Amino acid sequence: MDHELWSHQNKNSHEFSSSTISTELSLISSSFQSTCKHGGLISRTHHYSSAFNSMRNNRMKTWKPNGRNLKNKVRQYWSCSTSLELYDNPWKIKKALTTSDLGKLNRLLFGAELLENLMLPVLDADAQRDAESGMGTPIRVWDVDTMSMHLLILKRWASFKNYVLIGKWNHDFVRRRELKKGDEIGLQWDSYRHCFNFSVLKRIDQC
């Protein structure tokens, strides 16, 4: 009787241990390993794991945590920079005003590369063509400092192959905002209003 009871308990204990869920941390269960060992799956899994570790180690060797990796060049596009920075300056079109920007020529001069990268792409095809041909295209400019909307003309200046903003530049900006030589102004594209925002970023007499 005791022998039968012992055999029954031992059998239950064996069944319990074989059905218990393993708490061992493993990517492949022991039962799966045992089942697939003869089929070659384990060797292939080991091969893929080794290849992955090799690729990861190679990437770690090529990456170096120095200043050049952490501070990339700021891209000249309206999208946010992906480089590690505390602040992404939205005023990507900036200029310190010169004497000619404030004179009787009544125009604000910009380099061709700057406006071709940042201003022309946001205009429609007809507006781009008119600006590049020298005919000129109107653009709306919102003064964020005074909360007022203005209209300027963007055109390519053929003699210098640069771009200028003309129209009421002197009246609406130079005189109204009392701009001086050395003042820094900025422009940014406002996709919500479909216009360019304008601001006086720095006054020369306040530096």
UniProtKB/TrEMBL annotation:
Superkingdom classification of source: Eukaryota
Molecular function as annotated in GO: DNA binding
Keywords: DNA-binding, Nucleus, Transcription, Transcription regulation
Location of this chain's protein in the cell: Nucleus
The organism of origin for this protein: Crotalaria pallida (Smooth rattlebox)
A cellular component term, taken from the record's GO annotations: nucleus
Lineage of the species this protein comes from: Eukaryota, Viridiplantae, Streptophyta, Embryophyta, Tracheophyta
Name used for this protein in its record: Uncharacterized protein
Keyword Nucleotidyltransferase tagged: no
InterPro entries linked to this entry: B3_DNA-bd, B3_domain, DNA-bd_pseudobarrel_sf
Keyword Protease attached: no
